[in-house]
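Input record, target 12 of the design panel.
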């Protein structure tokens, strides 16, 4: 007969085994968590640190002017000069499955420019490349040679480097652009100054807009200008964009020109290529052919090089395993032929510099054609208003703070002044303009213009729509308009702000309200039609518009206060 110890022992052993198993499980889970956070610390933390360090470097170097002393300015000029040669040098070159290093030798001999391959494990010298071009820019030639192999080129101060797409982004040049004539002066870098930096950032942040040459950049305001760190192509566009915007602002209202101001083209004028496609004709019929043969036929008929955007065209029906195409063109323009081909096979096409690119539908409207449209006659009743008057008026535009739709702030009564036509604004004009994926539409209100990047086809639509708006536009006497502005600014309105008590206490809110009453229109807060009411979660401000224009930006800088509409977030928060 077994004793008690013999009966209890197995249960104890089972409990001990279960406890041991649980302990080992927790230990293994803890080790896995430690390995995960170690990975995050080792790999992710340095990347974020590099990003923050780079931003701080830009601020510090620009602030003390050291980047010029250390040669950044001379490096920028050298890169820009060599890039200009890449854009403007014309090449006639043909090769089929030629080794990359042999191709580089041939192009170096033809152009007289220093070209090298960033060889090693990144780029193999034996990579086969193919192209057939006649009097085409070296830029487009390199794009058509390299992009099918997942490669790109980078311009250094003294040479052209063929490398991978990611390596082509390495160390983009920095430059400071004076913009005091068109942008308000700011005391320091202001990344949220989107309303004036929007067009610049749209360009600097855009990647892969220029035919497979990797693009990325940063654009920040600094005092009386902007600091740009980006590729040479982006620098080119921003430099000439600033000049075009200044020109639009300086136009005289006596003989106001409404013609779009075109930026100089780095490589070629896409409009000229587009006109070729509308006039040149093609007759060609082929069954069970390939995309390469179709592109060759278009090139021979139009004289314009044709390539495919490898990254995106693979998502279309033009390519695939044993994919063969059927084409039957009888006396078509090149434009009609391209439209028929891409429509049938669910693809798209576009003009990129001096070449045609076959791509996906989604990428059809990504383009580098920028134009500046003067619109003073549309948004200011054709009046040449001084900047101080515009500064009073801008917060009154619908789409901005004071009369914003859905903002909780009531717009002026339609019968507020029955003799005055509806106040036009940039937002209203922008809503009627056509927009597609890849299109840039930004307003420079202080320079009386729109900056628009679009395909030649879309630019034609935009020009026609603006002319329609001009035919409907009403004229108004300057004195009548200023009288209306005075009247609107004196209208009493109420603004509702939300308070986050976990960020700012009730006592601090009361102190802030008292401070506002002392600094903004002191003595006018009578408690009847001019007051500030503070609760735990709300702040109500009521006063004339011109007073609230001075009050609300102060509140916008206080953490813990938020205004419940998108317009505030974009322009003031």
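The sequence produced for target 12 reads:
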């Amino acid at each position: 007969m077994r004793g008690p110890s013999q009966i209890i022992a197995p249960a104890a052993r089972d409990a001990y085994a279960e406890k041991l198993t649980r302990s080992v499980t927790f230990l293994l889970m803890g080790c896995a968590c430690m390995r995960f956070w170690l990975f995050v610390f080792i790999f992710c933390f340095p990347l974020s640190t590099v990003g923050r360090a780079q931003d701080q470097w830009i601020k510090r170097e620009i602030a003390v002017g050291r980047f010029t002393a250390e040669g950044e300015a001379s490096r920028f000029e050298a890169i820009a000069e060599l890039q200009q040669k890449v854009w403007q040098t014309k090449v006639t070159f043909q090769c089929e499955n030629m080794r990359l290093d042999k191709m580089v030798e041939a192009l170096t001999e033809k152009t007289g420019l220093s070209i090298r391959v960033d060889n090693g494990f990144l780029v193999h010298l034996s990579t086969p490349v193919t192209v057939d071009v006649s009097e085409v820019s070296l830029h487009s030639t390199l794009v058509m040679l390299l992009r099918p192999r997942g490669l790109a080129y980078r311009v250094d101060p003294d040479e052209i480097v063929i490398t991978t797409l990611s390596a082509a982004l390495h160390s983009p040049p920095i430059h400071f652009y004076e913009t005091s004539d068109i942008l308000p002066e700011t005391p320091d870098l202001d990344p949220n100054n989107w309303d004036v930096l929007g067009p610049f950032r749209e360009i600097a942040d855009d990647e892969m807009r220029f035919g497979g040459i990797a693009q990325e950049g940063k654009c920040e305001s600094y005092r009386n200008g902007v600091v740009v760190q980006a590729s040479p192509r982006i620098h080119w566009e921003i430099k000439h964009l600033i000049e075009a915007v200044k020109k639009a602002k300086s136009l005289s209202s006596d003989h106001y020109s409404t013609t779009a101001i075109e930026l100089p083209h780095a490589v070629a004028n896409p409009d000229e290529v587009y006109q070729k496609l509308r006039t040149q004709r093609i007759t060609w019929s082929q069954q069970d052919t390939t995309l390469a043969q179709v592109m060759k036929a278009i090139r021979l008929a139009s004289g314009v090089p044709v390539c495919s955007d490898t990254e995106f065209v693979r998502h279309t029906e033009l390519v695939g395993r044993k994919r063969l195409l059927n084409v039957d063109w009888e006396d078509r323009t090149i434009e009609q032929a391209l439209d028929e081909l891409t429509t049938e096979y669910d693809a798209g096409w576009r003009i990129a510099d001096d070449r045609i690119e076959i791509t996906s539908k989604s990428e059809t409207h990504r383009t580098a054609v920028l134009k500046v449209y003067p619109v003073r006659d549309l948004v200011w009743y054709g009046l040449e208003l001084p900047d101080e008057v515009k500064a009073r008026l801008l917060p009154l535009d619908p789409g901005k703070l004071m009369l914003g739709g859905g903002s909780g702030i009531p717009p002026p009564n339609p019968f507020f002044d029955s003799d005055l036509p509806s106040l036009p604004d940039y937002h209203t004009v922008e809503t009627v303009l056509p927009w597609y994926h890849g299109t840039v539409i930004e307003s420079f209100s202080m320079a009386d213009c729109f900056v628009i990047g679009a395909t030649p086809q879309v630019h034609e639509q935009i020009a026609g729509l603006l002319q329609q708006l001009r035919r409907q536009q009403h004229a108004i006497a300057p004195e009548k308009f200023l009288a209306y502005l005075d009247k609107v600014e004196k209208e009493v309105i109420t603004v509702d702000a939300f308070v986050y008590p976990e960020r700012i206490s009730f006592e601090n809110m009361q102190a802030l309200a008292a401070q506002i009453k002392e600094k903004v229109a002191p003595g006018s807060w009578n408690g009847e039609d001019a007051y500030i009411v503070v609760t735990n979660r709300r702040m109500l401000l009521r006063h004339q518009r011109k007073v609230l224009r001075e009050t609300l930006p102060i509140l916008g800088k206080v953490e813990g206060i938020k205004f419940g509409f998108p317009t505030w977030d974009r322009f003031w928060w």
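The chain has six domains: 4-64, 74-169, 174-250, 270-360, 370-486, 490-571.
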